Model the fold of this input.
Amino acid sequence: MSVTVYPATSDRWDDLEALFESASATRNCWCMWWRIAGNAWREIDKAGRKTAFRNLVDQHPAPGVLAYLDGRAVGWAQATPRRAVPRFNNGRTSKPEQGADLDKIWTLSCFFIRSEARKQGLMEELARGACAHAVAHGAVSVEASAFRPTRPLERSEGYVGLIGPLNRAGFIEIAERGTHRTLMRWTPAPDG
Done:
């Protein structure tokens, strides 16, 4: 298995579009749920969300990373400064700690992996690539509100990330946020 992870830049739009068009959840959301707060979500249809997402991909830095398996895009992780995801910041299970710098602390708020590529370690690889992307753009840490499964996952439950793969990628648990959710943080190793 040959996995590579790259920032989801505009030159990778066709790969990203094909990945998102492969499932109804991503095809409807276009990874805009955390970015559009309140009632505004209902005011934008899926075509509008796709256009908004495409505009994000055309900006710098990229709004996340893509994982490729043997040259084909099979996974996505949204990685952005917390300020870019207001709904995530307001969520009971994902809100930042008091006084957090919403520009310097980034978040992994969404993962998507094609069904046939799951259970191959891609979430861990996406998390590692997303953290490298975040640090390259000034992040001092990266947070996730990970899901702790106690039974087999149901449809889309793991989209916020899973504790096991995030632990293996270097995230630590910092705050329990309910029975199934934990705020986790990754901090780059000090130089040297």
About this structure: The beta strands are 3-7, 64-69, 72-81, 105-113, 141-147, 172-176, 181-186. The first helix runs from residue 13 to 21. The mean pLDDT is 90.
